[in-house]
Write a structure and sequence with these properties.
It is a single chain. By secondary structure, the chain is an alpha/beta fold. The chain contains six helices and nine strands. It has one domain: Rossmann fold (3-Layer(aba) Sandwich). The strands form two sheets. The protein has a seven-stranded mixed beta sheet, sandwiched between helices. A two-stranded antiparallel ribbon has the order 1-2. Strand 1 and strand 2 form a beta hairpin. Helix 3 crosses helix 4.
Length: 178
């Protein structure tokens, strides 16, 4: 299955969540068994040479892809969640959004210092959430080897922003001009 075919499985929803936004909905690709398998295989092929210790997924669709990749690679999976969603002691980071702030958290001690990490999410737009997740991981002493996404919206600059923070970043699919 080609990248073009994977791209064709992604639904575009105009004007969501607000007018002028072309929302790229990966759930249609996830619902296609062969498409999901191919997406995971292609992402795993990019990760395998790095031999990370852990796969870290960002809420929410990063959990789906991250867990599948961890299974495919025989690695552990760690979720990075929105504030207040994890039981027990957590560590977190506040970050700025276009209109306000948000917070990401993970369980304290779940990523040992020196861990080699690949960060996973379904889509990168401006990069704010991915940068915050990478910073949180680095604050725990982890080495973020790669941030990997199914989809990049390059006109919004997220990949460049991650690279500027010293985080190598890749995506399989690009939607230019959106």
């Amino acid at each position: 299955m080609s990248i073009d075919h994977l791209t064709s499985l992604i639904r575009t929803i105009p004007d969501f969540p607000k007018p002028g936004i072309m929302f790229r909905d990966i759930t249609t690709l996830l619902a296609d068994g062969q498409g999901l398998r191919e997406l995971v295989e292609q992402m795993a092929a990019r990760i395998r040479p790095l031999d990370p210790d852990l796969i870290v997924g960002v809420e929410a669709r990063g959990f789906i892809l991250g867990a599948a990749l961890a299974l495919a690679l025989g690695k552990g999976f760690v979720p990075v969640r929105k504030a207040g969603k994890l039981p027990g002691k957590t560590v977190g980071i506040d970050y700025v959004l276009e209109y306000g702030t948000d917070r990401l958290e993970m369980h304290e001690g779940q990523v040992p210092g020196g861990s080699r990490i690949v960060l996973i999410d379904d889509l990168i737009a401006t990069g704010g959430t991915a940068i915050a997740a990478a910073q949180l991981l680095r604050e725990q002493g982890a080495d973020v080897l790669l941030a990997l996404f199914a989809i990049d919206l390059p006109d919004l600059g997220g990949m460049a922003a991650l690279e500027a923070e010293g985080v190598p970043a890749q995506a399989l699919i690009r939607f230019d001009g959106e």
